[in-house]
């Protein structure tokens, strides 16, 4: 990995670890963990105490793989699908873990769509 890319990745992981020290997903209020790559975005609803993933969504799965030109639009669809899957599993309130990424663009679009889908955070 080039030096600058490694530094950016390490900085993001450091930020994520700093946030994770204070944040813990429980059965009553699981954690929504977001990961963003250059092409895709994925999110999981996690109960950290039990070590279980309750619901997950990614733009790589066939339900979201369509010729969408906008990554923000794809992230919005992923957030809506995540909210649908989480409410089907009985989850209404969550804590949002942005994964060290800025709350901006695709990450914010996923969060807003999940809120509109019925998740409270």
Structure description:
Helix 2 runs parallel beside helix 3. The protein has one domain: Nucleotidyltransferase, domain 5 (2-Layer Sandwich), CATH 3.30.420. It is built from 3 helices and 4 strands; from the N terminus they run αβββαβα. Strands 3-2-1-4 form a 4-stranded mixed β-sheet. It starts with a helix and ends in a 5-residue tail after the last helix. With 121 residues, it is an alpha+beta fold.
Per-chain topology:
Blueprint: H1 3-22, E1 31-36, E2 41-47, E3 52-58, H2 71-88, E4 95-97, H3 106-116
Parallel strand pairs: 1-4
Antiparallel strand pairs: 1-2, 2-3
Helix pairs in contact: 2-3
How would you describe the shape? globular
**How many structurally independent domains?**
1
Radius of gyration: 14 Å
Number of helices: 3
Profile the largest sheet. 4 strands, mixed
Unreliable stretches: none
Strand order of the largest sheet: 3-2-1-4
Q: If classified by CATH, what would the architecture be?
A: 2-Layer Sandwich
CATH first level: Alpha Beta
Order of helices and strands: HEEEHEH
Please provide the count of β strands. 4
Average predicted local confidence, pLDDT = 92
Beta-sheet strand percentage? Answer: 15-25%
Helix content: 40-55%
What is the structural class? alpha+beta
Distance from first to last alpha carbon: 36 Å
Provide a concise account of the structure shown.
With 121 residues, this protein is α+β, with helices and mostly antiparallel strands. The chain has a single domain (3-116), classed as 2-Layer Sandwich (Nucleotidyltransferase, domain 5). The protein has helices spanning 3-22, 71-88, 106-116; strands at 31-36, 41-47, 52-58, 95-97.
